[in-house]
Amino acid sequence: MLKARVEEALNQQLNEELFSAYLYQAMSADFQRKNLPGFASWMSIQAQEEMAHARKFYKFILDRGGKVQLKAIAQPQAEWSSPSAAFAAGLTHERHISECIHNLYAVSEEERDYPTRVFLHWFIEEQVEEEATSEEWGEKVKRVENDPSGLFAVDKEAATRTFDLVLAFGPAA
Ligand code: OFO
User: Fold this and answer.
1) pTM score, whole prediction
2) Whether residue 94 has its Cβ less than 6 Å from ligand 1
3) Partner of 118 at 20 to 30 A CA spacing, among 2, 19, 65, 141?
4) What is the domain extent for residue 68?
5) Which CATH number goes with the domain that contains 115?
């Protein structure tokens, strides 16, 4: 049985993950509008991964006998000044999410909720990768931003990203 404090914190993180999906989908739309289909696709896949993260929290709350509270999702920004500005905003956001996960882990420790602690291990590792990927792509985009042929090539590379079900949900899902 979930303690009320842990249940509330898990529901808050569910909302954060849903907002993440919203944010990346907004970036995807902005890239699409600016004729950068590869980056649009990359962001759309990121949004799908965030939905998978949200789904993990949703299922975990129910599996623990808790109540899912689908809170209102904040409206994300709709436009970014440049491709690298969007990727930089993604990195800032991922750092925020890492902080949220760490705070949630601290709550699970304080409440001696061992299943939640174990559940969060996957997310702690995932955030290391999320930050590294955001940073890597942000740097890549920044390097070519003022070179149309370079930007075209990186956009094309971004289009090769695929949605990996096992990576998103883990092997047991
Ligand atoms: Fe859910 O990892 Fe990004 O935000």
Assistant:
1) 0.94
2) yes
3) 19
4) 4-165
5) 1.20.1260.10
